[in-house]
Specification:
11 helices, 8-stranded antiparallel β-sheet, alpha+beta
């Protein structure tokens, strides 16, 4: 089969069908009726409805996950993607849940992570089915629902359903990912400072908050201060000198100051601008209570570098590169506690328990406590594994290259498999817009991904 030609023939169908799921704001919501909220349930049902109309077998696993399948055989080839998305954020050129094509690019939250790639894999399956291909394995597209938070959906799925013989996740990049760093989400809680003596600061600290997802570099952070001084002039002068974006709202002597950064995926925190760090750095120039200033300085020193050096975690290896750290959230209530949300991604040869121990020491040295929220061990597959070699060969033949396997800091559903890797759907030169405003994919990339996925499924299941 000429998969290059076929992928072109199905491009319009790809756009039509992916737009149906991109329109649904499938961000997690608390719900008593649905496991992860109605929008996520809606997108899952919409995807299954599309597949049912196309003649695939489908199964909804209690709203936690689902799958779409064709073919027969003892072995099972799994393709694992997710339909939930991170919050849209603000300042989009066009509404984030109104799919828009501009200059050959499809804009919408989830276009790149991960609805576009999921639909590319689905269209690849449909091409093979439409053309009468009879796989000697069952080919199953597994749809997750809680990937951007806790992975509860995919965990529930594999408690109920069969583990694939091998598989891949279209939730990263080509050529093929043979290593994924370990991922640690944790919360560090400190008591608020105890004010001794008779110090009367010129500026009273009221509250601070920023960030809501540990896997995102926060693009906003807000502090409330109370002062007789002209803080508006002070912060605007600071912002001009340091080239940062701020806004100030004043009601009598209370100032609400918002710092704006640049969102990015926490696997590459160095590509974003952390609004929390920007705000904390500013607060060190404000005459707040010395105990507060001491506490905020310790936090800033710990997280103003994304390589973990401030936490004594700096390390790297040849297989997967350097450790990264991201201060994903911070919440302060002066009369109760101060809580940091921390995301660390560590090299595949590092020991996760040693990372946890070092973070524990950082917390205890500052009179705090550490709570590990989630810990995903690193993924590693040898480069000469036959399954990996097949995927790599198909990719290289499709693009006319001789690329080798790579590693990432991201975490994909490949970790849920006994034998699996991340495989596409982005290319080495694709714009990386996941978790950012104006998230998008190039339609040419999606067409090429459909071609590669169709050829890969054909080679693995023939």
């Amino acid at each position: 089969m000429d998969f290059n030609k076929l992928s072109s023939m199905y491009e319009e169908e790809f756009v039509t069908k992916v737009s149906q799921i991109l329109k649904i704001p499938s961000v997690y919501e608390d719900s008593e009726e649905y496991p992860y909220g109605k929008p996520i349930d809606d997108v899952l049902e919409t995807m299954l409805h599309i597949a049912q109309k196309d003649g695939f077998l489908t199964k909804n696993i209690d709203g936690h996950a689902a799958h779409i399948e064709f073919g027969e055989g003892e072995e099972l080839l799994g393709i694992l993607g997710h339909l939930d998305v991170v919050p849209a954020g603000s300042d989009w050129t066009t509404p984030p849940f109104e799919p828009t094509i501009r200059d050959g690019r499809l804009f919408a939250r989830g276009a790149q992570d991960d609805k576009g790639p999921v639909m590319a894999a689905y269209i690849a399956m449909k091409i093979l089915k439409d053309k009468g291909f009879k796989p000697n394995k069952r080919v199953r597209l597994i749809l997750g629902t809680d990937e951007e938070r806790d992975w509860k959906g995919i965990d529930y799925y594999f408690k109920k359903e069969e583990m694939p013989t091998f598989g891949f996740s279209p939730d990263a990049s080509f050529p093929v990912i043979h290593a994924e760093k370990g991922l640690l989400d944790s919360y560090i809680t400190f008591p608020t400072p105890f004010f001794s003596g008779h110090e009367v600061p010129a500026v009273e600290f009221v509250s601070l908050s920023g960030g809501d997802r540990l896997n995102m570099v926060p693009d906003q952070a807000r502090v409330v201060l109370r002062s007789k001084e002209d803080l508006e002039t002070h912060v605007n002068k600071y912002a001009a000198e340091h080239k940062v974006s701020v806004s100030v709202d004043k009601i009598e002597e209370t100032y609400t100051i918002t710092f704006y950064g640049e969102a990015a995926h926490a696997s590459k925190p160095e590509t974003g601008v952390n609004a929390i760090i920007e705000l904390l750095t500013y607060l060190l120039t404000v005459p707040i209570h010395s105990e507060w200033k001491h506490k905020l300085k310790k936090i800033t020193e710990g997280f103003n570098q994304t390589d973990g050096s401030g936490l004594l975690l700096k390390q790297s290896d040849e297989d997967s590169g350097a450790l990264t750290s991201n201060l994903g959230s911070l919440s302060i209530q002066p009369d109760s506690s101060l809580t940091l949300g921390v995301n660390v991604r560590y090299p595949v040869t590092s020991e996760g328990e040693e990372i946890i121990s070092t973070l524990q020491s950082y917390a205890e040295e500052n009179s705090g406590t550490l709570e590990v929220y989630d810990h995903l061990k690193a993924l590693f597959m040898e480069k000469n594994h036959p399954f990996l070699e097949t995927l790599l060969r198909v990719y290289n033949e499709a693009v006319g290259k001789n690329d080798t396997p790579v590693s990432i800091g991201g975490a994909t559903y490949a970790r849920s498999l006994h034998a699996g890797v991340a495989f596409g759907a982005m290319f080495p030169d694709s714009p990386d817009t996941a978790h950012q405003k104006d998230e998008h994919v190039r339609l040419a990339d999606m067409k090429k991904a459909v071609e590669i996925y169709a050829a890969s499924i054909y080679e693995l299941a023939k």
